[in-house]
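The records we work with from here on pair a chain with its fold. The integers have meaning only within a learned vocabulary of local backbone shapes. A complete example follows; check for yourself that the lines match position by position.

:::
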Amino acid sequence: MGLQRMYQRLAELPEEQLTARDRRAVVRRLLAYARPYWGSLLLLVVAILAYSFSQGAAPTLIGRAVDRALLPKDPVALRRFVLLLLAVYVLGFVAQAAQMHLVASLGYRILATMRQQLLDQIHRLSLRYLEHEEAGDLMSRLVNDLDIVQTFFSQTLRQVLGSLFALVGIIAAMFWLDWRLALVALSVIPLMWLATQWVASLARRAFRRARETIGDVSADLQEELEGIRVAQAFSRTEENIRRFVARNRRNMEANITAGAITSAFGPAVDVLSTLGLALVAGVGGYMALARMVTVGVVVAFVQYVQAFFRPVRMLAAQWTMAQSALAASERLFEILDLPPDITSPPNAIRLTNLRGEVVFEDVWFAYEDERWVLEDINLRAEPGQTVAIVGPTGAGKSTLVSLIPRFYDPQRGRVLIDGHDLRTVDLHTLRRQIAMVLQEPFLFNTTVLENIRYGRPEATREEVEAAAKAAQAHDFIMRLPEGYDTVVGERGKLLSVGQRQLIAIARALLARPRIIILDEATASVDTRTEVHIQAALRELLRGRTAFVIAHRLSTVREADLIVVLDRGRIVERGTHEELLAAGGLYADLYHRQFAAMEGWTAGVARE
């Protein structure tokens, strides 16, 4: 039954995604990471050659010792050969130690380089890509796949190169001793080549499946950790565990299949090794009896055959890691090869001293194909003006403000700041002058001080405290165990929602932006905390162009302009009083909210 399941899994392996030429390109690209360290590589090659020489010279010395010392019974010659053998083995030991040091250093340097490149690339990629990818799968690539590539450079590469050089040295020594016995010893190579090709074809596909399934497991684990409170609240833990067990089983079976494929290569090598040894012993013994070769040559050849299959076994063992590294590299290069769709153009305009005028001209936007989220948006925000954006859930409010820092580009129309199309400006200078305060502010697992000055790392402590005071956050910060030096925990979990929001406002204030985006900044807090946040927001908005999204319409009454979105279109615009008088969607939403609030208040009073 076990074999049947194994054969079934082998049949289910996907077809290889890469051609032989593509695989060679992946290998060349992977090895190119070692190019900057050519000095270390040169020393590594020297160490490998020295070790290969020691492996190739030892059997010849033993064979010569048999013919020139043991059989003639010459103790002086025997001592000389023993000393030579000792020197050869010491050379091999030193060379092997040097190899291990050099490749370990090389592996960690390449790991650091690739990790930096991947993180840089992820920061360059647009939110469109990141929103469609599972965070757990990305983490699996950045951690698990990178670890495999690092192991390839720090272990596999040395052992593969060492084995290859050793094989070349052994083959050369065998032909130097006697070409006839050499051909006999190498007669099993065609069988080995066929076995290698078959195993390699299956192994590449199996390890690709294994890398993909570990990505699924990582994504599921991350989701479980983040959603464990919801799972417990809705009594869904058993269902979630069953789902994870299924994914974990798929990964286990993929690894078992990959391991079964590669482990089959070792016994095949052992069988071929025994066959080669038998051939050499039989043919060599016959040739020695016929005085075609000396006994010492036969002894040397027996050792060479055994030595020949040692690196072959090593290659078989490392073949597993090589195939896994190839599959991991494919997944990493998939990220590195993604073209960022939001970039600064050549000769981009650097934005300095913004006035803060924001204009939407005939803007249409869709996340997929032409499923329009925004349609025919025309909107102007004057410098220093506060524009409130309201509307039903799913109307496109957050999407609209996401176009201002150019998280996305519209498919039609354009967005301008101070008359410049955002596609023509430098992204860095654009985003340095925009600050966002979201419904769920993100805090980093560091101190309050570092979180506030995240947007301006050069800010002094006095400037940080001034921003916190303006944001109504200073008093509660001083009550924390270590004040501004208190570590807030992962995502700021040691603070309340309101406290996190006030720190986010202080961060925005310190950044000194010209344009502010508030996306439901008070939606998750109680009324008392909202009073403090509103006071902080008034300080934040003073003299700046602001876009405010709010479901609580009581918070947008003072806006200079209120824009009402419905199904991606602007259906109304005006001041609070004008929109109430018009009796449209805004007035309907406003009256519904206050009717609901009055009903809730009356219910509380009755209780």
User: Anything to note?
Assistant: The domain at 358-433+513-606 is CATH 3.40.50.300 (Rossmann fold).
